[in-house]
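Page 42, continued from yesterday. The earlier attempt failed because a stray header line got pasted into the input along with the sequence. Redoing it now with the clean sequence only.
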Amino acid sequence: MTNLGIAFAVLGAVFASLFAGIGSAKGVGLVGEAAAGVVSVDPSKFSKVLILQLLPGTQGLYGLLTAILLISRIGIIGGTPADLTLSQGLMFFAACLPIAFVGLFSGIAQGKSAAAGVGIVAKKPDQSGKGIIMAAMVETYAILALLVSILLIYNIEV
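This time it went through. Structure tokens are written below.
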């Protein structure tokens, strides 16, 4: 007999890593496009624009962390998979949605903000910290979503 509970829990892990990863990939790509133009004119600015490009990559890491914690919690990694009820599986699935969707949208938003920061580096490289701070502000919401997902995962009874 198929265990729908475990299937929904695993689907939650997939959503967390997939959607947060898409947001990060899109965000990092946006910044990379802007950064390539700046570096082609002045290669010495590479390290400053690289920092900005790395920022939107964190959402993908948060989704991956959530997925790993979940599949570890339900015994797929390092144990025997739990016999989850459908209700438990749906709760685990729902627990992954905060980081899945906030990771998707904040990764893209952070990429746009960091790409604007690349413009600061192009014109006033000594002010690059301001661009980093503006892009990092978007990170707050990804961190909050990660926290919610983790708290939910560890408070669902198995």
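Notes: The two ends are 19 Å apart (CA to CA).
Reminder to self: strip header lines before submitting.
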